[in-house]
Design goal:
It is built from 16 helices and no strands. α10 crosses α13. The protein is mainly alpha-helical. It is globular, with a radius of gyration of 20 Å.
């Protein structure tokens, strides 16, 4: 039975099934993030075109998150998950027979499906756990979304280098079927606590509240800037290292993934699960991302030392998303919590897509080192915003 009436524990067997489901779902994107840019470059596409293809994923994810929250409120997490996993499987099978000219609309469709998956999982976790366990649950979920980065990038590089369409097809088939098998008996509630729908007018009104809610506005700006850095790195790192003839993107992403997973597991209980805000922890994450980007910009100088960049970037990626998401899950008003969280998460999607769109255009008129230096400046700007907003963010909201 899928309905979850009693609160559960984040390490229960039913929740582990949810984490494994997240692993299989995001493994597909981990593979495609490596293979699609390399295939597109081999088809003589320029960096701007590649950026548009890869950025389309998060751009449509951004657009569909509020609608995902709306449908979850109407039909419940369980029903929404059933349909989106079927659509996900069909999409991955289409990839096996598509050429580079179809990639942009396939990535856009994949982003829409991811919006529904991400919102469904996070709503299910928030609804099914006690408040004190919420940070652990969200951290474990985001941890398992990153586990694929340990093994999938190296496997994807091997598949691309072998130029085997059969191996690519087999990988997509496994990743299409895996989530459907794991989903059976997954611990998702049939309905949300609010159990209500949202009209477009409700969503527009909720969107307007971002300007009157400093915590939501500041969190969204921070996430926008940071995810732009993450998106640029994910999109252009393989191409940069291939062009420079220095470093191995698969090894780099594996190290980064290992750092992310270790931090999210070891530090999962350190993430505040009561609505409190730690200014210096947040600023430290952004400065860590700045150091990581700057080391990438200096690839020609630092050589193998560039892998230290994966440690700095991994720390930022590991803690920024779950910390901000958990914080807002307590701060936002319960009545409009999920729509507002969807708006916040859309800032992540927009930033990630801009990492491909805008940085791809920047690359056309500059260089990879200049682009990564720009990423450093974005991270520093986010850290400054955090420090300047210390009093606002640490203030307790009115009951």
């Amino acid at each position: 039975m899928h309905f979850v009436s009693a609160k559960q524990h984040p390490s229960s067997a039913s929740f582990i099934r949810l984490y494994v489901l997240a692993f299989f779902f995001f493994a597909a994107n981990s593979a495609l993030t490596i293979i699609l840019p390399l295939r597109s470059e081999a088809a003589l596409m320029n960096q701007a075109e590649i950026g548009f293809i890869m950025g389309a994923y998060m751009f449509t994810c951004m657009l569909f998150r509020p609608f995902a929250a709306q449908l979850i409120g109407r039909f419940g997490p369980l029903s929404v998950m059933k349909w989106l996993l079927c659509a996900h499987a069909v999409l991955l099978l289409i990839y096996t027979v598509s050429g580079t000219e179809q990639y942009i609309w396939l990535r856009a469709l994949q982003g829409a499906i991811t919006a529904f998956f991400s919102m469904t999982m996070q709503v299910g976790i928030v609804e099914s756990l006690e408040n004190k366990d919420r940070a652990q649950g969200l951290s474990m979920y985001t941890l398992f979304t990153m586990v694929p980065s340990l093994v999938i990038p190296i496997a994807a590089l091997q598949i691309w280098q072998s130029d085997s369409q059969l191996l690519f097809a087999l990988l997509m088939i496994v990743l299409a079927i895996g989530p459907l098998l794991v989903f059976y008996r997954a611990a998702l509630p049939e309905r949300t606590v609010q159990d209500k729908t949202y009209t477009l007018r409700d969503m527009a009104a909720s969107l307007g509240t971002i300007w009157t809610s400093p915590p939501l506005l500041i969190s969204s700006i921070i996430m926008l800037l940071a995810s732009c850095v993450f998106g640029a790195t994910a999109t252009f790192l393989p191409l940069f290292m291939l062009a420079a003839g220095s470093g191995n993107a698969g090894v780099y992403l594996t190290i980064q993934g290992l750092v992310v997973i270790t931090c999210r597991f070891v530090l999962r209980k350190k993430i505040p699960s009561n609505g409190s805000w730690n200014t210096w922890l947040m600023a430290g994450m952004l400065l860590s991302a700045a150091l990581g980007s700057q080391l990438l910009a200096m690839l020609d100088i630092v050589g193998a030392f560039v892998y230290v960049s994966a440690v700095f970037n991994g720390f930022a990626v590991a803690l920024l998303y779950p910390t901000l998401t958990t914080y807002l899950s307590f701060i936002l008003p319960e009545k409009t919590r999920y729509v507002l969280m969807a708006i916040f998460l859309s800032s992540y999607d927009l930033g990630f897509s801009l990492g491909g769109f805008a940085m791809g255009i920047l690359l056309q008129s500059s260089s990879y080192p200049a682009m990564f230096t720009c990423c450093t400046l974005l991270s520093v700007a986010a850290a400054i915003i955090i420090i300047l907003s210390k009093k606002t963010m640490e203030a307790k909201p009115a009951p």
